[in-house]
Amino acid sequence: MTDSTEHTLHTPGDLIANLPAVFGFFPEDSLVLATFVDDGTRFALGPVLRVDLRPVCAEALYSALGSLGAHRAGGGCIIAAFVITADAAERDRVCELLFSASRAGDAELLGCWSTEAVFAGGAYELEFAPPGAEPLDDWYGGRIPEVVAAAAMGPLLRRGELPEPDRKAALEFFAPAGGEIDDVAPGSVGGARTGSVLDAVTLRLAAERARGLAAAVRRGGAAGRAAFTTVVGAAERALTDESQGQGLVGAADPEDLACLAGALGEIHLRDAVAATVLDHPRSAERALARLSRVLTGEARANALCLYSLVAGPAGHGHRVAAALAVARTEFPGHRLTRLLCEAQLRCSPETVAERVRRGSRQVAERLGVAGADPAGGAGGLAA
Q1: Pairwise CA distance, residues 258 & 209, whole Å
Q2: pLDDT tens column, 214-253
Q3: Taking the CA atoms of the chain, what radius of gyration do you get in angstroms?
Q4: How far, in Å, CA of 84 to CA of 20, rounded?
């Protein structure tokens, strides 16, 4: 079996060693479901899903298996289950639930393995395999290899990074300026620290201007085209400044960045700038990470969603799940968050990004903006 970067995973221990880099943190008290897709010559690693075991209920476990079921419907997909916990009673309970699901045909499991924690030298063992299966010796049990030598760890180490020690630390990357993630209540654009380039007054004015530009885009015509050009042009310049080190910190003129921040709080403007954001993944990843910490409400949710789309191409794929987890927790009714979470399990990251880019270009097509995608329609992204 191989991962998405063409590295061969010979044993369950190899996959376990890669999990910290995949998730961006060391999973503990977790059920991990890793899909493998048969492309005719090999099994390649597909979506990987993690479920909290504190404790997990049967409904949540079956829901997780069902989420991967849509991906499995494409054919040739199997699931490897890993129960990571030092709680022997919880381990046994979860393994029994998985065994029952496998026996009932609700999940096609390659096998189920358990380990107390993810660390080099830690023991793992096979809990059960499908009837008639003949696992290799290393599949019955063994030791987890060096985590820092795992294939997925390479991109992080080249940037001088390491996975966070736990999930809480991974989520804190997106913590709002001056507060904890759990303390943020949904609201409107605002809340930057005093003295920052985007202070509260600047953000409030940007939000007011964005409302006017969004209204013009909705009306269409010459005013809509002008508003679209204004917003997309500002986003382009803001991301170019960011790529040249002139962005959020020390920028002489924050007007373009403020326009982008305001656009994230309006659905039609968010749709308008999405293609531009996707076209500049590295600078957008840096800008959106910082914007997500100074925005609130709809604007923060949209910043996190767009961040999840550019983080992978920018080399920070381990933060995608955390960005969507924060958005899902803080804004459970946000439709784009829900759709992106579902799409992550059904489509490749490239397919998800292309669908968002196409939806963004449809806004330009509807307005009749020169150079718009000729295949576009009257849609856009999800509200």
Answers
A1: 10
A2: 999 999 999 999 999 999 999 999 998 776 665 554 443 5
A3: 22
A4: 12
